[in-house]
């Protein structure tokens, strides 16, 4: 048995996907399952497929290669870079877009190479201030897109809670579908892909606040952690502990909480602060900043306190724990988005699937 590892409980994760799909299905919304958190782990995409997912989204093109044999619609979530356009049109059925220059270049590429028009979803920035065009500029941009022969505008998308940590409001969603209606009326076309947000927008669905025009949600977080950023409560029927991390104790010691000697900077260029609480029992684990984000790791033994660490070590205050840790013992952590990302991305972390 090798440590550290991230353990994926398949039964619980499959359950969460199905609950999300059920919540959405009642409102005729399709779940576009987001795979980017799994950093190209094929088994994770297979679990989505097993649960019945037909639409997949990722921000990195390499990850689509990993599960190219899984049937379904593949959507690029990070707006394309000019340099990756040939791969985008080859590997993806559609992409989210926010820059007219890029959209024009995609169109030119498709025409030049006699490819069928690439399907694009135009992102509208409703306040979170990441990608997308502003509502009052949308019609002008759509005017230009409509003239392009190498792209097909299939819908609009919006996003909340990422950069600006904004929460979707009823008026923002109304503005969003108003734009859809304006476009459909002006150009006499149907926008069939109305992508109404990420996990943070799921609560609008069960609160009956999601406009009926919305037929897609791009979702990762809510299914992974069984909760969402709006309320941070467990979504009824979901599990919060589908994923956990286990690391191994490699030293148990009793040392002063305050380092000794003249203070300088740590291995990462920071000047850390230490509380002098006298001598404490500490444990050192075989996992480091290369593998995870310490501030997104929650020991299941709640009497343990993470002190910090370095590239390869995690140091914990075990003074208050009822468990008498020994070298070789295993410490289990609940996770959050950042630690999940790092753990899946670290080749030094074993990925273990349990039923
Ligand atoms: C990552 C991402 C999502 C998924 O967000 P979750 O919070 O995991 O549901 C949706 N849309 C875009 C554009 C993304 O980049």
From TrEMBL:
Domain Alanine racemase N-terminal residue range list: 8-225
Coiled-coil regions, chain positions: none
Keyword check for Isomerase: yes
UniProt GO MF annotations: alanine racemase activity; pyridoxal phosphate binding
GO cellular component annotations of the record: cytosol
UniProt keyword list: Isomerase, Plasmid, Pyridoxal phosphate
Protein name: Alanine racemase, N-terminal domain
């Amino acid at each position: 048995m090798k440590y550290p590892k991230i353990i994926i409980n398949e039964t619980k994760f499959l359950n969460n996907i199905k609950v999300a799909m059920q919540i959405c299905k009642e409102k005729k919304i399709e779940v576009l399952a987001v795979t980017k958190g799994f950093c190209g782990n094929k088994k994770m995409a297979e679990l989505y497929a097993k649960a019945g997912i037909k639409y997949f989204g990722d921000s990195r093109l390499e990850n689509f290669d990993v599960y190219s044999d899984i049937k379904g619609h593949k959507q690029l979530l990070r707006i394309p870079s000019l340099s990756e356009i040939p791969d985008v049109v080859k590997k993806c059925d559609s992409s989210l877009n926010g820059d007219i220059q890029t959209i024009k270049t995609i169109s030119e590429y498709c025409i030049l190479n006699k490819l069928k028009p690439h399907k694009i979803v135009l992102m509208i920035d409703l306040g979170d201030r990441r990608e997308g065009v502003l509502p009052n500029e949308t019609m002008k941009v759509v005017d230009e897109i409509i003239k392009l022969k190498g792209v097909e505008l299939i819908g609009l998308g919006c996003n909340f809670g990422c950069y600006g940590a904004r929460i979707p409001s009823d008026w923002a969603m109304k503005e969003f579908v108003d734009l859809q209606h304006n476009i459909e009326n002006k150009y006499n076309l149907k926008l069939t892909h109305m992508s109404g947000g990420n996990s943070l927008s799921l609560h609008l669905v069960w609160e009956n606040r999601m406009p009926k025009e919305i037929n897609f949600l791009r979702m990762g977080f809510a299914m992974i952690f069984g909760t969402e950023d709006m309320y941070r409560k467990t979504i009824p029927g979901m599990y919060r502990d589908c994923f956990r991390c286990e690391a191994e104790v490699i030293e148990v010691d009793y040392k002063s909480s305050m380092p000794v000697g003249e203070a300088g900077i740590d291995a990462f260029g920071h000047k850390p602060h230490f509380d002098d609480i006298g001598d404490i029992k500490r444990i050192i684990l075989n996992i480091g900043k290369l593998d995870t984000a310490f501030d997104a790791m929650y020991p299941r033994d709640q009497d343990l306190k993470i002190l910090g660490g370095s590239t390869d070590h995690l140091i914990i205050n075990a003074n208050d724990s009822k468990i008498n840790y020994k070298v070789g013992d295993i410490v289990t952590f609940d996770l959050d988005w950042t630690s999940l990302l790092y753990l899946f991305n670290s080749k030094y972390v074993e990925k273990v699937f349990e039923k």
